[in-house]
Amino acid sequence: MPSPRAIAVAQTVPVRGDVDRNVDEHVRLAHVAADAGARVVVFPELSLTGYEMDLAADLAFSRDDARLDPLVAVAGSRLLTLVVGAPVALEARLHIGAFILGPDGSLELYTKQRLGAFGPAASVDGVVPPAEATVFSPGVLNPLVRLDGHTAAVAVCADIGRPSHPLEASARGADTYLASMFVIPPEFDREAATLGAYAARHSLVVACANYGGPSGGLGSAGRSTIWSDRGALLVQLDAVGAGVAVAAEDGTGWHTQAIRARSGPQG
Questions:
Q1: Where are the beta strands (DSSP E) in 91-166?
Q2: What's the CA gap between 98 and 53, in Å, rounded?
Q3: What pTM, to 2 d.p., does this model score?
Q4: 107-111 and 145-147 strand pairing
Q5: DSSP labels for 217-238?
Q6: What is the pLDDT of residues 112-146, one digit of tens each?
Q7: In what order do the strands lie in the sheet containing 93-101?
Q8: For residue 65, what is the DSSP state?
Q9: HSE-CB for 175 with a 13 A CA cutoff
């Protein structure tokens, strides 16, 4: 019999290209989530570097990157599964990756399958980042995540634009869908409606982690959200700032917390 789920989304305000400071912020928010009872914490797309196309190659992670060590340690000490985003170099190709760090010291990697691009309306400074396909290659790594008797699938941002992605996750036995996102304000309502519909259609608990501040010259919509497997919105953070939203189930239903953390370091 599966144990009740306790899922958190961590909303971060990334520091451009400063992996050490971003790792420290991830560790801090992981502790906040664990203190609230979470067993899995999902962070936004490219959360360890920010959405910085011009820095991705120089900051790229390897599979066994030592910069992940503090996150591996907190996953083990707090019995958490963490999903954290970073550019990843694999066999001379650069991918948008999501590292899955388990409480037992395990490390797996998901690579974004469907690359995206932002239009001029997304920019806050008049500069639009290049299309992801000019920097990254699409990936194929797609491990399932075991969570206290449940099974989760991972998605990274534009992956959710393909309806077959959550359908295939459900067909593989997933009952939870962990979406690591960067959603800009004009696109939030559409993306939220898509994720809520997937939750209801495929009986998936859906967690969406987004930035709480700008990155890569683009504004972010924040509002990191968790939906029930019937498509009901369970908990949502504010549009701006760092925080953690937690949804935990027991025999009586879902119990939620939206925790606004002090703003993370910016620079």
A1: 93-101, 107-111, 145-147, 150-156
A2: 16
A3: 0.95
A4: unpaired
A5: TB------EEE-TTS-EEEE--
A6: 999 998 876 666 666 678 899 999 999 999 999 99
A7: 107-111, 93-101, 81-90, 40-42, 6-11, 243-250, 253-260
A8: -
A9: 13
For helices 164-171 and 188-202, give the axis angle rounded to 10 degrees. Answer: 30
* Cα separation, 259 vs 193, whole angstroms: 23
- Please give the Cα distance from 145 to 188 (Å, whole number): 26
Q: Give the Cα-Cα-Cα angle 249, 250, 252 (nearest 5 degrees).
A: 110
Question: Quick one: which of 38, 49, 199 has its CA closest to 10?
Answer: 38
> If you average pLDDT over every residue of the chain, what do you get?
94
Sign of CA dihedral 163, 195, 25, 79: negative
Token code pair at residue 54: 């011009």
For tokens 């559409």, name the residue.
190
Residue 13 near residue 266 (C-beta atoms within 8 A): yes
CB 48 within 8 A of CB 61: yes
Classify strands 176-180 and 205-209 as parallel, antiparallel or unpaired.
Answer: parallel
* Predicted confidence (pLDDT) per residue in 7-53, tens digit: 999 999 999 999 999 999 999 999 999 999 999 999 999 999 999 99
Q: Which two tokens stand for residue 68?
A: 């992940």
Residue that has been written with the tokens 């790792």 in this structure: 23
